[in-house]
Amino acid sequence: MTLPNAETQSPPIRPEYHRELTPLHDLPLERPLPFSTRLWNQAWLRKSLLLLGLLLLWQAAALWQQNDLMLPSFTQTLRAFVDDVQSGELPSKMAISLVTLLKGYVIGSLLALVLSALAVSTQLGRDLLGMLTSMLNPLPAIALLPLALLWFGLGENSLIFVLVHSVLWPMALTTWSGFMSVSETLRMAGRNYGLTGLRYVWQILIPAALPSILAGLKIGWAFAWRTLIAAELVFGASSGAGGLGWYIFQNRNELFTDRVFAGLASVIIIGLLVESLIFATLERLTVRKWGMVK
């Protein structure tokens, strides 16, 4: 049996042809979106309108109730806020709270990173992280304040202790989850370059898990900020000094409800500023710029 010749079995060649395309200049051009539609697509405008609606609802409810002790109006709260800012009382309380928060937040974040790096490197570290998070993560940080006062006394160290507890465990869990989600290709690339230990964590795992680390930082910030205000309510009542929590507690005792609302508004404003200016900018300059998130 003879095999067919390769030349006789070559595939047929399709003939070339030229197709005339319909000119586009006769087609109607699409009209641009109306100005109102383009304006409504701006997220800042929609959020501003929602905020304005909530403030108007607050003002209407206060005017309908007519009880400044129970619910001061928005204008009364704004007046108290402006007066205390001009007097310097609110800025000083904010500074006290933020300095204390920053100390506990930095310590807790570093400890969380160390525990996560240890867990990804050794089996003993994984067992330690799993056991500690299972035991201590469900424990409310504010519940440790009496023990912190017993150990560290009436001072800033007690607040830093509960702040570290509130930041450490949620951030350690999110960082560990980010480390475990790093692709095996990147892990093998790091090993091929001879990276081990801290160099492997710093140059491979942390850049690849940066979205999860940023999410842990935001969660830790929210937990720490809430814990600080709650702890200052107790801490300020015990020592007669403190930040925004003590400001709220003191004005509540003196029945200055408008100033209580001004303190609560300060907590909200600081939280929004940190979220929109610090974390959003950090995310835009890193993970969004590198295409790691949508």
From TrEMBL:
Q: Which GO terms describe its biological process?
A: transmembrane transport
Give the UniProt entry's GO cellular component terms: plasma membrane
Give the transmembrane region(s).
Answer: 94-120, 132-153, 159-179, 200-223, 229-249, 261-282
Q: For this UniProt entry, what is the primary localization, expressed as one broad class? A: membrane
> Keyword set for this entry?
Cell inner membrane, Cell membrane, Membrane, Transmembrane, Transmembrane helix, Transport
Q: How does it sit in the membrane?
A: Multi-pass membrane protein
Residues annotated as domain ABC transmembrane type-1: 90-279
User: What InterPro entries has UniProt attached to this entry?
Assistant: MetI-like, MetI-like_sf
Per the record, the domain of life is: Bacteria
**Compartments, as annotated in UniProt:** Cell inner membrane; Cell membrane
- Tell whether Oxidoreductase is among the UniProt keywords: no
Family recorded in the similarity comment: Belongs to the binding-protein-dependent transport system permease family.
PANTHER family to which the protein is assigned, alphabetical:
ABC TRANSPORTER PERMEASE PROTEIN, ALKANE SULFONATE ABC TRANSPORTER-RELATED, MEMBRANE SUBUNIT
Can you say what this protein is called? ABC transporter permease subunit
Q: Which organism is it from?
A: Serratia fonticola
